[in-house]
From TrEMBL:
<keyword id="KW-0560">Oxidoreductase</keyword>
<feature type="binding site">
    <location>
        <begin position="85"/>
        <end position="86"/>
    </location>
    <ligand>
        <name>NADPH</name>
    </ligand>
</feature>
<dbReference type="InterPro" id="IPR029139">
    <property type="entry name" value="QueF_N"/>
</dbReference>
<feature type="binding site">
    <location>
        <begin position="83"/>
        <end position="85"/>
    </location>
    <ligand>
        <name>substrate</name>
    </ligand>
</feature>
<feature type="active site" description="Thioimide intermediate">
    <location>
        <position position="184"/>
    </location>
</feature>
<comment type="subunit">
    <text>Homodimer.</text>
</comment>
<dbReference type="Pfam" id="PF14489">
    <property type="entry name" value="QueF"/>
</dbReference>
<dbReference type="Pfam" id="PF14819">
    <property type="entry name" value="QueF_N"/>
</dbReference>
<comment type="similarity">
    <text>Belongs to the GTP cyclohydrolase I family. QueF type 2 subfamily.</text>
</comment>
<feature type="binding site">
    <location>
        <begin position="252"/>
        <end position="253"/>
    </location>
    <ligand>
        <name>NADPH</name>
    </ligand>
</feature>
<dbReference type="InterPro" id="IPR050084">
    <property type="entry name" value="NADPH_dep_7-cyano-7-deazaG_red"/>
</dbReference>
<feature type="active site" description="Proton donor">
    <location>
        <position position="191"/>
    </location>
</feature>
<keyword id="KW-0521">NADP</keyword>
<keyword id="KW-0963">Cytoplasm</keyword>
<feature type="binding site">
    <location>
        <begin position="223"/>
        <end position="224"/>
    </location>
    <ligand>
        <name>substrate</name>
    </ligand>
</feature>
<dbReference type="InterPro" id="IPR029500">
    <property type="entry name" value="QueF"/>
</dbReference>
<comment type="function">
    <text>Catalyzes the NADPH-dependent reduction of 7-cyano-7-deazaguanine (preQ0) to 7-aminomethyl-7-deazaguanine (preQ1).</text>
</comment>
Length: 276
């Protein structure tokens, strides 16, 4: 468990406050988890973002009439801190009985508070239900590897030694799996997700990738660190010209978390999957 997470509200009984309380946000430094992966803030081999989507966002108009919307928050992958998920939910719930002059005022407040907690500027978009409904859901790009016939015996810890590639072939492809599962390192609750890999490099053996993804099944870690571990393990194996790894996790408590890590400074999408 991350030492800072022990002091967070995660896994503890909490009072739900319905008026604006920014002090509820609980930042957790990324440095300890980076160190586990042999990284520092100065040596990150990727760029990226963590997209958080809030489906339980509500506040009051000056007239007292409530509004509901969907919030999108983009936290830079190199920000000093992640924001502990339950504290994020508690903070958002503290808006429920709080009046704001208009949507722009709420967006500015959210950006200020979340940026202070993350330690870097956080992007905020408040979107209407009609707007998000019109977008619908999407499928992940490339080949789904979930129907491959594999025998699995590793569930407790990620096993990068399972990964195989063909160094004699250079390919550019996108593959994905919906069989990613890990556990919260504090509460042990399951975290369900889909993971996509887009790369140009030595040809990755798809069956070995699926076996490797399933080896996360009983692993305890935060969403962000699971994606970073997958990225690093594939980078070491494939020595790719370019590599992007991202996961779309199923929401819990009205929030989903979607980490993206890439060697390229690309415009990353934030489109919902069918399970989201």
């Amino acid at each position: 468990m991350h030492p800072a997470a022990e002091h967070s509200p995660l896994g503890k009984s909490s009072e739900y406050i319905a008026t604006y309380t920014p002090s509820l946000l609980f930042p957790i430094p990324r440095t300890a988890k980076w160190a586990e992966l042999g990284l520092t803030a100065q040596t990150l081999p990727y760029t990226g973002v963590d997209f958080w989507n809030c489906f339980e966002l509500s506040w009051l108009l000056p007239s007292g009439k409530p509004v509901v919307a969907i919030g999108e928050f983009s936290i830079p992958a190199d920000s000093p801190n992640i924001i502990e998920s339950k504290s994020f939910k508690l903070y958002l719930n503290s808006l429920n009985q709080t009046p704001f002059a208009d949507t722009a005022s709420l967006e500015a407040t959210l950006a200020k508070d979340l940026s202070a907690a993350a330690g870097k500027p956080v992007g905020v978009r408040i979107r209407s239900l009609k707007e998000v409904e019109a977008e619908g859901v999407v499928a992940l790009p490339g080949v789904c590897i979930d129907d491959l016939d594999i025998s699995v015996s590793n569930y407790e810890h990620p096993r990068p030694e399972l990964l195989r590639c063909d160094d004699s072939r250079i390919v550019e492809e996108s593959v994905h799996s919906h069989l990613l599962k890990s556990n919260c390192p504090v509460t042990s609750q399951p975290d369900w997700g889909s993971v996509a890999v887009e790369y140009r490099g030595a040809a990755l053996d798809h069956a070995s990738l699926l076996d490797y993804i399933v080896s996360f099944r009983q692993h305890s870690d935060f969403h962000e660190q699971c994606v970073e571990r997958i990225f690093l393990d594939l980078q070491r194996l494939l020595k790719p010209e370019k590599l992007t790894v991202y996961a779309r996790y199923v929401r819990r408590g009205g929030l989903d978390i979607n980490p993206y890590r890439s060697t390229q400074a690309v415009q990353l999408p934030n489109h919902r999957l069918v399970r989201q």
